[in-house]
Amino acid sequence: MLCHFSAGSSDDWRPDFGVFRAADMGNPLDGWPGERWLDSRSDIVRAVMLARIRLAAEKGCEGVEPDNWAGFHLTADNHLDYNQFLADEAHWAGLAVALKNNVVQVSDLAASFDLAVKEQCHEYDECEAYSAFTTLGKPVLNAEYAAAYPTEAGKAALCVQAPVEGQSTLILPLNLNDSFRVACTD
Asked: How far apart are CA 166 and CA 186, in angstroms?
């Protein structure tokens, strides 16, 4: 089981929210009330993320999918350092770790992550970058949203292309309400 957690944002409803200092938090996430971007250079932010990784291990997760890692305005090197920190800590806890939606740094991080999770790589023409994972024999799990593929012919064409690229793709409703799921497999 792969467990999701927010690695770069605070949620005012989480029990660890009070640990963050005002200086650790940046702008609100657009469309997500109560969530604010975090400064991944902060020792406090990193301590909270380490606790979240350990909690995932305690709950029996086999891996983690850190999300929302890049909303605070930092350098590319800051983001690489933080992602490497997340990968190292997950591995130290005995967990696999997924790189999520990081097309910009995928080639720099593929060796450190066990798999990739991507949303809409076909829609945004970003799938080729994930060959950095597939050439290493690492899985790429992709979610496409049905709004971009409204016809059955569009879904079928996508399901022909996805396995050629070595990816496992699901087509899902945008609101993720489980009303349907199309699996594109070879």
From this structure: 9
